[in-house]
């Protein structure tokens, strides 16, 4: 008989694995949102400078006319590309997705305590894990219908941060495959 078939805590372990995957997704999505936020801030800054100060700057400092023209042109290019590269739209989606995943994770932590304490049968744990996977899937489909882009450097950092969280919070080492 295989180890899986004889493991009395298999459903708990599967739920734990799903919970750690959810935490990694929470951290990754927050990191992705923060990355996009830097772009949104940068683009907004260029547009604000261009729209409110470029003409005045050009008039006052004519020797820097090329610089001001560059700012105005950059602003117009960014404005024209906002629908091609919808950074703000992705930022908003990432913000909502982060909030949604964090809310799910709060509920999952409570559920885990009941599972760990033996409050559920294996069938109940299996159904709860299924519901958790569905909630996570539906949240991503809602906010990122084409899928959440993966930035490998942020994903590796998210895995490390999630592992540290679980080690600190639950005094357990999380293994990632």
Q: How would you describe this structure to a colleague?
A:
This protein has helices at residues 3-6, 10-52, 54-60, 65-81, 87-116, 122-143, 152-170. Mean pLDDT is 85; it is low at 173-177. It is an all-alpha fold.
Give the arrangement of secondary structure elements.
Blueprint: H1 3-6, H2 10-52, H3 54-60, H4 65-81, H5 87-116, H6 122-143, H7 152-170
Helix pairs in contact: 2-4, 2-5, 2-6, 2-7, 3-4, 5-6
The major beta sheet can be summarized as:
none
Structural class estimated from helices and strands: mainly alpha
**Rg calc:** 23 Å
Which H/E pattern describes the elements?
HHHHHHH
Helices, by number, come to 7
- Tell how many strands the DSSP assignment holds: 0
Query: What share of the residues does DSSP label as strand, in percent?
Result: under 5%
Q: Are there runs of 5+ residues with pLDDT below 50, and where?
A: 173-177
Shape: elongated
Give the fraction of residues assigned to helices: over 70%
Determine the mean pLDDT.
85
Report how far the terminal alpha carbons are from each other: 24 Å
For the structure shown, list the relevant keywords:
177 residues, mainly alpha, 7 helices, disordered C terminus
Q: Would you kindly provide a brief summary of this structure?
A:
The chain is an all-alpha fold and 177 residues long. The protein has helices spanning 3-6, 10-52, 54-60, 65-81, 87-116, 122-143, 152-170. The protein contains seven helices and no strands.
């Amino acid at each position: 008989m295989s180890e899986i078939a004889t493991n009395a805590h298999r459903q708990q372990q599967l739920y734990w694995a799903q919970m750690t995957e959810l935490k990694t997704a929470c951290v990754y999505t927050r990191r992705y949102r923060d990355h996009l936020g830097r772009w949104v801030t940068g683009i907004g800054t260029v547009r604000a400078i261009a729209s409110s100060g470029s003409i005045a700057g050009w008039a006052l400092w004519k020797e820097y006319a090329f610089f001001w023209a560059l700012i105005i042109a950059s602003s117009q290019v960014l404005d024209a590309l906002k629908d091609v590269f919808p950074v703000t739209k992705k930022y908003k989606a990432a913000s909502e997705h982060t909030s949604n995943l964090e809310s799910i994770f709060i509920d999952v932590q409570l559920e885990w305590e009941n599972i760990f304490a033996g409050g559920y049968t294996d069938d109940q744990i299996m159904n709860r894990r299924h519901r958790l996977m569905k909630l996570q899937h539906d949240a991503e489909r809602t906010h990122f219908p084409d899928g959440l882009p993966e930035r490998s450097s942020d994903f590796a950092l998210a895995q490390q941060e999630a592992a540290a969280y679980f080690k600190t919070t639950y005094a357990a080492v999380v293994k990632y495959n």
